[in-house]
Design goal:
The chain has 210 residues and is α+β, with helices and mostly antiparallel strands. It has two helices and seven strands. It has a three-stranded antiparallel beta sheet with strand order 2-3-4, with no helix packed on it. A two-stranded antiparallel sheet has the order 1-7. The protein has a two-stranded antiparallel ribbon with strand order 5-6.
Length: 210
């Protein structure tokens, strides 16, 4: 028979490996509203890219442009997560695609569960106050360099009053380098923000055959 002390010790050990938050649960009404918001987001971006005064596309790609390439909506890749604080101010230097680096500050970390495993990513913000104040989550995953841009993808986050952020990979978008590599010099995600699974949500490569 196990002693009470042994049982308590086992319980304490189990508590140390608790699973992080999983996908955000949605009612039918919430699911419909989310799908509509996602479709409208994509329509708005396509319309902006069709506008020659604000497009990021190369001139030769604009004629005949009908829209960017996306995965189908995947509700299992939408999360509501606490922004976990980091100790002290942590500055990082991120590499640019064409060389040089740019400083950022780690604003916190988010941890989520996917297929029974926990994954943690760093959330960044500008190191220079003149660049404003925002939350930015750049990442790589197993689709990077295949179905999606090799230099990773980005997510823009907003901090809610309860200290959480919505991490919805369906809104993941490509750096501008994917559309015009000659014009733009995009920032690459930190090495630690690499997910060991395929995030089949959000934006795909602009030129799907490349």
């Amino acid at each position: 028979m196990l002693s009470a002390l042994t049982i308590l010790a086992a319980a304490g050990t189990a508590g140390c490996v608790s699973e992080a938050p999983g996908p955000l649960a949605m009612t039918d009404q919430e699911l419909e509203a989310w799908e509509i918001r996602l479709v409208e987001f994509r329509i708005d971006k396509n319309e902006a890219f069709m506008d020659s005064t604000q497009t990021a596309l190369r001139a030769e790609d604009l004629p005949g442009f009908e829209g960017l390439n996306y995965y189908y909506p995947e509700k299992s890749l939408r999360y509501r997560l606490p922004l976990e604080p980091v100790t002290g101010e942590q500055k990082v230097e991120l590499a640019k695609r064409k060389g040089n680096t740019v400083p950022y500050v780690i604003k916190g970390k988010v941890t989520f569960a996917h297929e029974g495993k926990n994954h943690t990513l760093s959330v960044l913000g500008p190191a220079d106050p003149k660049d404003g104040d925002y939350l930015w989550l750049p990442f790589y995953d197993e689709t990077s360099g295949g179905e999606t841009y090799g230099g990773g993808r980005y997510l823009d986050l907003e901090l809610a009053a309860d200290g959480t952020v919505e991490v919805d990979f369906n809104f993941a978008y490509n750096p501008l380098c994917d559309y015009n590599p000659e014009k733009y010099n995009c920032t690459l995600p930190p090495a630690g923000n690499r997910l060991p699974f395929a995030v089949k949500a959000g934006e795909k490569l602009f030129h799907a055959h490349e």
